[in-house]
Each structure stands twice: as structure tokens, then as C-alpha cells.
Design brief:
The complex is a heterodimer of chains A (about 200) and B (about 500).
Chain A (H helix, E strand, L loop, with lengths): L1 H23 L8 H22 E2 L12 E6 L7 H6 L3 E2 L2 E8 L10 E4 L7 H8 L5 E4 L11 E6 L2 E6 L1 H6 L3 E2 L1 H6 L1 E2 L4 H5 L1
Parallel strand pairs in A: 2-4, 2-5, 5-6, 6-7, 8-10
Antiparallel strand pairs in A: 1-9, 3-4, 7-8
Helix pairs in contact in A: 1-2
Chain B lengths: L1 H5 L2 H50 L1 H5 L3 H9 L7 E8 L4 E6 L15 E4 L3 E10 L2 E11 L1 H32 L1 H20 L14 H59 L5 H31 L6 E4 H11 L1 H7 L2 E4 L4 E4 L1 H17 L8 E9 L2 E8 L31 H11 L3 E7 L3 E9 L1 E4 L9 H6 L5 E4 L13
Parallel strand pairs in B: 7-9
Antiparallel strand pairs in B: 1-2, 1-5, 3-4, 4-5, 6-8, 9-10, 10-12, 11-12, 13-14
Helix pairs in contact in B: 2-5, 6-7, 7-8, 8-12, 9-11, 11-12
The chains are: A alpha/beta (about 200), B alpha+beta (about 500).
Chain lengths: ~200, ~500
């Protein structure tokens, strides 16, 4: 029953995003909505993996030197096997990458990056209360995710996937975010100098 | 390279120093230029690689998150680099990601990345560097460095080097023309002294004394020492000669006196005892008188020989036609008696002593008349021909001839080839002739074949060296030694003229 609702929601999402993407696409290519959605999530999956390269966790976040960097997925997620294919065989700072999918925040304890899909927007508060003060990179496409205390929020700008970075919050919880990531993503809260540019 | 060998020593030394200097400088400049170019290329590659790597480092996030704007911002920093003309970042799949093109630089960006590394072309350097992040290749960066500015600097450097080279050579020229003097001056002084000695026969000249204790100083000292030795030997020789001649002259005179007594008293004996003497004793007295007479002739010839030894050398132009005509006049009877034919060609004017040259012709024509073959009429030919700087004057006869093995022997004193009964003579004639001709800087030779005849050739220089006779015979030697007033004239303008012919 719950799965059916999720699936129908997903279809709705796919359609809305697909239309917006198709309007903004430059140059416009004749692609089906499914392909467009699939492309957006493909990009997001790659971004998730790439975030790991620009973030440094405190040593205490790992059980030992061989412990993998773990990506947690809370509830429903749109990537399917895409992310699994991206991380397969990859190593970052010598560590393997693992994915853990769970429906409860407890089950995601020890994850280094936790992703919350838009379908699970209502669980934002739950997620942030569980990991908001831990050195966990919280990433979501949910609106105002950064305002709520999340670290990285996906946005769509001119039909392209972009992101906001809450550097102040990240620093507070002991995550070191590379300045290069900050130069590519938008700062949250937006600095005045940034606006002037 | 003959001109080099003939170059004056001063120029040659200067040239030597210049060539050495410029060669060394050129090699140094060339080596420096090669090093500079290699270093410049090496530095250009190194700088471009470092720059590309720094840029690559800063495009990691832009490439990772597909943010061309962020990458463009990174590349925009290249505006501060005046030599970077073009730059492009490629994605891992080879698609162009972001570009940079400096204003004022033309040239098209590559569409796809070439292999990593660097490539030089005429005006620029292309560099391709991989962009790797976390062990994965995420793209390629391309930079094009404009080398023209640097080449201009190299050109300026080359021009500077050329200017320095020319300046150095000019300096080397000035320095070498000064520095070579201590070497060239003494050699030139020696050469001048040697020429003065050779031309003026003045052995009192000395090369300027050198204070240098090196080979040049030694050479100059040795040269001066040699000159002193030669001068001393010349003086000694002259003194000895004078003494000898004096002795011979006196001895000859003193020898004549007893001979005269023998002849006179033999005459008295013959006159007073004439009728009482047996024919045998009369013959003995005749032999004694004849011997004494012969002795007297011998002494006269010896006197003549010693007189020719005198170094008195005051040569005047001598008309050989005249001389020969006079000599032939004295032989008029003998020529008539032998029914001989004498032909004389035109003879030149030569420099010499007339009386001595007359003695030579006297002897040679006399010999030609004397040594006649029994079976044919004597024919004597006197002629001259020019041979380079010399005159060859030949006296040819068709007489008995001389065996080749005696060709030199005949010119020695007291050498006779025939018995006195066969041909009269005392063996002094040709010796005197040769001596006289040698005093005239010439040579006397013979060409002859037994039974065919003889040809005596007088070689005399055609260039005349006429000197005025010394005022006082005592000072003759010194006067000649310092004969600076030696006049020279050529006999070219004096054509030989034919003397009156006698038959």
C-alpha cells in the first residue's frame, strides 16, 4: 500500500521535473521525460559521490583505518542502482565506499553522508535531529534544507543541478569542506559580497 | 695561404691574436647562445607545466560538479600571465569544458585533447596536462604559451652579444697592435740590420741591444756577436792578404835580381870566351841563359797574379769590342803566321777593370792560337749572348781540345797538360783568368772535346756596379767595405757593337 503511494508520487515528481527540465534545456533535445529525470538523478548520484572527495571527516567518524565511507539513504530514494554503479570499485582517500539503505535514522548511525530524497521531505526534522550535531554530511533536494540545518541542498538553476553549502554548520559539526566545493556551490546563508557579484 | 706567409710579421702577429680572440669569443658566444636557448625552452616547458598543474588543481570541483562558470573563473586568472595565449579545459570524455583566450592572440583552440606532454612550434609552446583527482582522471588542461616575446628577448641578447664581440675584436686589435711590439720590433730591427749588412757589407753595424733576457735578447746578442766575428775575420783576412801580397811582391822583385846577374854574367862569359868554347859548352851556356829567362817570365807572371789579388775594385764601364780589337792587334803576326781566321761578334760593355779584362782576352785568344791542330786551319770565334742578368762571352776554337777529366785542372796554378817542348807556357794563364773573372763577380768555364776544339765562356754580370777608384790605395779596403756610394746601372741600354774584325 505504502509502496504504491510512493511510486505514484515518484511518477508525479518525474513529470513535473521533466517538464521544467524540458523547458529550460539548452539546447533543447528531443528526450522523453523519463530520460530527463533519469539524467537529473544520474547527475545527482555523481554529485553525491563527488561530495565525498571534497569533505574531510574527523578520524573519530571511522571505526578504523580500513572502515569504508558509508552513504546512507533514508527511506525512498530515486537512484536505483545508479549510485551503486558509480561507487563500484572506487576508493576515496584510500577508503572503499559503501551504501546503506534504511527506513529509520537509527539504522543509519555511523553513516558519513546521509541523503534524503524529496519524497521523504516530511522526515527532514527527524533526520536533522538525529544527525544534525554529528559529523555527518546531510544532503537533500528538499527545499530550505540548508535553512533547516542541513549541510548541502540540491537546487535546479537554469535546468542544471546546482547546490547550496551550509559551510558554517559544517564547520560547527566538525566537517572540513574544501574551499573548491564552496567556490562551485552557493554559500548558505548567502554572503553579502556574494550577492554583490 | 701564400699571402699569409708573405704577410709582414707585425700584421701576422696582429692577425694571429685577432683570429685567436675572435675564435674563442665566437665559440663562447655560440655555446652561451645554445645554452640560453636550451635553458629558455626548458624553463618555458617547466613554467607552463607548473602553471597548467596549478590550474588543473583548481578545476577539480568545477569538473566534478560540471560547473563551467567556476572553471572559467579559474582560467580567468591567466590574464595576469602575459605569455599565455590560449587555454582550454577538457572533460574526461574529451569534450571542451571551458576556454580562455588572451586578447591580441590569434590561433584556434584544439577541439580534442592531444596526448599529454609538450610540443614546440615556431611561435608557441603547447602543453597538455592531465587533471587527476583522488586517483581518477577527470579531464585535460591545454595551455598555449606565446614564445615570441621570449624570442624577442633572445634576439636582443644575440644583438648584444654581437656588439660585445665586435667591441672585443676592436679592443683586441688595439691591444694586439701594442702588445705584439715587444716581439715584432726586435725581429724587425734584426731584419733591418741584416739587410744593411748584406747591402752595404758593413760589418760595423749592430742590431739595437735588447734588455730582454728571453730568446729575442739572445738572438740579438748572438747576431751582434756573429757580426763582430765576421768583422774580425774580414779584418784578419785582409791583413793576412796584404802581408802575403807584400811578401810575394818583394820576393818576386828580389828573385829577379840574382837571375839578372846569372843572365848578365853568362853573357859576359860567352862574349869573352866565345871563340875558345867548344860547341858543347856553348850549348850549355845557351841552356843556362834560356832557363834563367824562363825563370824571369815565371816571376813576371807570379807578380801579375799577385797584383790581381789586390782587392782594389774600382770598376768602370769597359768596351769589350775595343779591348778585343787591341788584343788582336798584338797577335797580328801569330794570326798571319798560322793562317788563322778570327771572327768577332758584337760584344757588350761590362763593368770592370780594363787592364785585367785585357789580360783575360790576351790569355784566352793566345791559348786558342797556341793549341792548334796540325791538320786544319785555325778558326777562332769571339761572340756574346745575353743570359738573364748575365752576358756569356765565348771564345771558341777548333784546336786540339781538352779531355773532360782535365776541365777543372787547367784552371789551377802551374798546371800544364802538355810538355814544354810541345806547347810553351808556365801554367799560370788560366788561373789568372779565372781569378780576374771572379773578381768581376763572374765565372770562367770551359766546354771542350779532344780533337774537336774548345769553347771558353766568360760569364759577366750585365748589371753594372761602377765604383769610383779610391783616392789612396792604402785605404782601398776600408773604402770598399763602406762603399755606400755604390752606383748601379744596367747595360741593357748599351747595345753590343762590333769591333774591327781581323783576319
Amino acid at each position: 500500500m505504502r509502496g504504491w503511494i510512493r511510486r505514484s508520487l515518484l511518477v508525479l515528481m518525474v513529470m513535473t521535473i521533466g517538464i521544467s527540465q524540458a523547458v529550460a534545456a539548452d539546447p533543447p533535445t528531443p528526450t522523453t521525460p523519463e530520460e530527463l529525470v533519469s539524467k537529473e538523478y544520474q547527475v545527482k548520484a555523481a554529485f553525491l559521490f563527488n561530495f565525498l572527495k571534497f569533505v574531510e571527516w574527523p578520524d573519530s567518524a571511522f571505526a578504523d583505518a580500513d572502515a569504508p565511507i558509508t552513504i546512507g539513504m533514508l527511506g525512498a530514494e530515486p537512484f536505483g542502482s545508479m549510485l551503486d554503479r558509480i561507487i563500484a570499485g572506487e576508493r576515496i582517500q584510500g577508503r572503499r565506499i559503501a551504501i546503506r539503505r534504511a527506513d529509520t535514522t537509527e539504522a543509519l548511525t555511523g553513516c558519513h553522508l546521509v541523503f534524503l530524497s524529496k519524497f521523504e521531505a516530511r522526515r527532514t526534522a527527524e533526520l536533522l535531529s538525529a544527525f544534525g550535531s554529528e559529523p555527518v554530511l546531510t544532503v537533500s533536494g528538499v527545499d530550505d534544507f540548508c535553512a533547516a540545518g542541513g549541510i548541502i541542498q540540491f537546487t535546479i538553476e537554469a535546468g542544471k543541478v546546482r547546490f547550496l553549502v551550509n559551510a558554517t554548520r559544517a564547520q560547527a559539526i566538525g566537517l572540513k569542506i574544501s574551499s573548491q566545493l564552496l567556490s562551485v556551490g552557493k554559500q548558505f546563508p548567502p554572503a553579502k559580497s556574494e550577492n554583490r557579484r | 695561404m701564400n699571402w699569409l706567409a708573405n704577410l709582414p710579421i707585425r700584421r701576422r702577429l696582429t692577425l694571429l691574436i685577432l683570429v685567436t680572440c675572435s675564435t674563442v669569443l665566437l665559440i663562447a658566444c655560440a655555446a652561451l647562445a645554445v645554452f640560453e636557448i636550451l635553458d629558455f625552452r626548458h624553463a618555458a616547458v617547466r613554467d607552463a607545466t607548473v602553471l597548467a598543474d596549478i590550474l588543473a588543481e583548481n578545476t577539480h570541483a568545477a569538473l566534478s560538479f560540471d560547473d563551467a562558470n567556476a572553471a572559467r573563473k579559474v582560467l580567468r586568472s591567466l590574464q595576469a600571465e602575459p605569455n599565455v595565449a590560449l587555454a582550454r579545459v577538457f572533460k574526461a570524455n574529451g569534450d571542451a569544458f571551458t576556454d580562455f583566450a588572451d586578447t591580441g592572440h590569434s590561433g584556434s583552440l584544439p577541439l580534442t585533447p592531444a596526448a599529454d606532454g609538450h610540443r614546440f612550434s615556431t611561435d608557441w609552446l603547447d602543453v597538455y596536462r592531465p587533471i587527476t583527482f583522488q586517483g581518477a582522471r577527470i579531464g585535460t588542461i591545454f595551455l598555449r604559451i606565446d614564445l615570441r616575446g621570449m624570442y624577442e628577448r633572445l634576439t636582443v641578447f644575440a644583438i648584444m652579444a654581437l656588439v660585445v664581440l665586435l667591441g672585443s675584436m676592436a679592443l683586441a686589435l688595439v691591444l694586439s697592435s701594442r702588445l705584439q711590439r715587444p716581439i715584432s720590433e726586435p725581429i724587425l730591427a734584426l731584419a733591418r740590420t741584416a739587410r744593411a749588412v748584406a747591402e752595404q757589407r758593413d760589418y760595423t753595424v749592430r742590431a739595437p741591444k735588447l734588455e730582454a733576457a728571453n730568446e729575442l735578447g739572445m738572438l740579438t746578442d748572438a747576431f751582434n756577436h756573429m757580426l763582430a766575428q765576421i768583422a774580425k775575420h774580414a779584418d784578419d783576412l785582409a791583413a793576412t792578404n796584404a802581408e802575403l801580397e807584400q811578401f810575394a811582391y818583394i820576393a818576386s822583385h828580389d828573385l829577379k835580381e840574382p837571375l839578372r846577374m846569372v843572365t848578365q854574367y853568362m853573357g859576359i862569359v860567352e862574349r869573352q870566351l866565345g871563340p875558345t868554347l867548344t860547341p858543347k859548352h856553348q850549348r850549355f851556356i845557351a841552356y843556362a841563359v834560356e832557363g834563367a829567362m824562363r825563370m824571369q817570365t815565371l816571376i813576371n807572371d807570379l807578380l801579375a797574379f799577385t797584383r790581381t789579388s789586390h782587392l782594389q775594385e774600382h770598376h768602370q764601364p769597359v768596351e769589350l769590342n775595343q779591348v778585343v780589337t787591341e788584343v788582336l792587334t798584338t797577335f797580328q803576326d801569330s794570326i798571319h803566321q798560322a793562317k788563322a781566321t778570327v771572327q768577332t761578334g758584337p760584344l757588350p760593355v761590362v763593368a770592370g777593370e780594363r787592364t785585367k779584362l785585357a789580360i783575360v782576352f790576351q790569355n784566352l785568344i793566345g791559348n786558342a792560337l797556341k793549341f792548334q791542330a796540325q791538320d786544319r786551319q785555325p778558326v777562332i770565334d769571339i761572340s756574346a749572348e745575353r743570359a738573364g742578368d748575365d752576358w756569356n762571352i765565348s771564345i771558341t776554337d777548333n784546336g786540339i781540345g781538352i779531355d773532360r777529366q782535365h776541365h777543372e785542372q787547367i784552371f789551377a796554378v802551374f798546371q800544364r797538360l802538355h810538355g814544354r817542348d810541345e806547347y810553351p807556357g808556365n801554367g799560370m794563364g788560366l788561373a789568372i783568368c779565372r781569378k780576374i773573372i771572379e773578381q768581376h763577380h763572374g765565372a770562367l768555364t770551359v766546354e771542350s772535346e779532344v780533337g774537336r776544339g774548345s769553347r771558353f765562356v766568360l760569364r759577366l754580370p750585365a748589371v753594372m756596379r761602377v765604383s769610383p777608384p779610391p783616392a789612396d790605395p792604402e785605404t782601398a779596403i776600408t773604402a770598399i767595405a763602406s762603399a755606400s756610394a755604390t752606383a748601379t746601372a744596367t747595360a741593357d741600354s748599351v747595345p753590343p757593337t762590333r769591333p774591327g774584325s781581323l783576319a
